[in-house]
Batch of 4 targets.
Target 1
Amino acid sequence: MGSKRRGSDRIERCDSCGRTVPRTKAVSFVKKSYFTTDLRTNDNVSLATEIEVYYCISCGKHRKIFEKKKKLLEQQKNRGAY
């Protein structure tokens, strides 16, 4: 299915403030977590996981996860995309 499907979008909750946001407007971010037993022997167990979290637009800007559209357009103009 493409991005232009009919009906309402899936609702995601912002992990920072708890606001409900449609998935198309939510900012997705991949959190990486590392767990280890910190043993210096051969029994050391380590685990690395990636969790995809969603933020609303205002929390995404506050946490500097994504830049404003204006800055992105300026960068594209400098590269010669427009």
Target 2
Amino acid sequence: MGKRRRGRDRVVTCVNCGRSVPRSKAMSYMKRTRYSTDLRNEENVSYVGGVEVYYCISCAKHYGIGEKKKKMAQRRREREYRV
């Protein structure tokens, strides 16, 4: 069973609709961001980062977040088999 917390889960807010959802029921998704100054010399500054956002089940189903996670997992498995 492990050291899982008993009782109330931590509550997170859905990014889309603002609904409060227990963290165990929410779908987490890594939203990627990329910033660049687009200069064509050595002073070009670029930043690539990510923020973990949470969606409630209904919004995740509507936007296909679960399907995206399945496709990403399939790609990861295919890469492992190729190597």
Target 3
Amino acid sequence: MKVLGIMGSPRLKGNTDLLLEEALKGAQSRQAEVEKLIVDKMKIAPCKEYYGCLRDGNCVIRDDMDTVYPRLLEADGIIVASPMFFYGISAQLKALIDRCQALWARRYVLKNLPESNKKGAFIGVGATKGKQLFDGSILVIKYFFQAFGAEYADELLVRGVDKRGEIKDHPDLLKEAFALGERLAQRLG
């Protein structure tokens, strides 16, 4: 089984990255093969609404998304991690998600994306403690997963953590991330 981690933070070795690493270790501990994409290191243009994807399910824009689509389709599990920027996911991650309009077209317009038992999880990290901090992001991630047939199966939502590496002061949250990865792999196995 394959678990794909999508790191949506531009801050390497920051809180979001450290939590995703733990989640991937948890999945690995259950014999999952893991891979991590660092979205900020990729060249991904935003969706331009050319609608070429409605013809054949492929985006007409050529960039690093060409390597992302097959990884999403091959993965059994996906863990998306993002910091909260103004109560939403990072712009880098949003560009990747918006470009998955091509997968949506394959599934819902062309009807040539087979059903799957994929499972997905979301790790959100925010500096504030607002009650609705994750509401919009959860919806975006749920619809992202739905575009290619993955079930939104788990989440870890962390409030009040901001400084780089501050999550290390919260070993309980690192353990929760590891457990999230374990649970995801168990549900896939």
Target 4
Amino acid sequence: MSLTGDYDVLAEIVVETPEELYKIFADKIDMIQGIEASNTHMVMKEFIK
């Protein structure tokens, strides 16, 4: 995948609960040196063609 626009990296993280997502960010992603900001979007419903 190649991105254009405002984002350098796109990652999909599958979790069971919002708390699990928070823990991943707090314990892992936020600890990566050089990350200045992140933007999180949650999929509310998936549509399959």
